[in-house]
Specification:
By secondary structure, the chain is of the alpha+beta class. It has one domain (about 5-95). It has two helices and six strands; from the N terminus they run E-E-E-E-E-E-H-H. It has helices at about 65-80, 100-110, and strands at about 5-15, 15-25, 30-35, 40-45, 50-55, 55-60. It has a six-stranded antiparallel beta sheet with strand order 4-3-2-1-5-6. A hairpin with a 2-residue loop joins strand 5 and strand 6 (about 55-60). The longest helix is centred in the middle third of the chain and has 19 residues, at about 65-80. The chain is elongated and about 45 Å long.
Length: about 110
């Protein structure tokens, strides 16, 4: 079973929406809204964070702290399952803002 969970941010770069890897500091803390685009670090406050694991993409919202919390939660769940344990959790406990990509696009066009 794959235990890798990666954090990305879905951002608007040069008029195109794409997934960019989130940037972590050397002490393993997330740099808020920092992403790697073509190998260059930049700050992009548009878009939302997503997790990539087991060939799935999970929207975790726009808050960097919440994104890291859910990242660690999913890593723990996958590690538990990989070691033969079972996870008794309801995915509904993760609160994600209802703002979607379409809402972001509309608000950025009208602003």
């Amino acid at each position: 079973m794959n235990r890798k969970v990666s954090l990305y941010k879905y951002v608007n770069v040069d008029g195109k929406w794409r997934y960019a890897k989130a940037v972590f500091a050397p002490n393993n803390t997330l740099r808020a809204h920092a992403v790697l685009v073509n190998g260059v670090e930049s700050v992009n406050k548009t878009g939302y964070y997503v997790l990539s694991y087991s060939r799935k993409w999970e929207n975790v919202g726009q808050d960097p702290k919440e994104a890291v919390r859910v990242l660690n939660l999913r890593r723990g769940e996958l590690l538990t399952e990989a070691s033969g344990g079972s996870v008794v959790s309801d995915r509904k406990e993760v609160k994600v803002p209802t703002k979607t990509r379409e809402n972001i696009e509309i608000s950025s066009v009208s602003a």
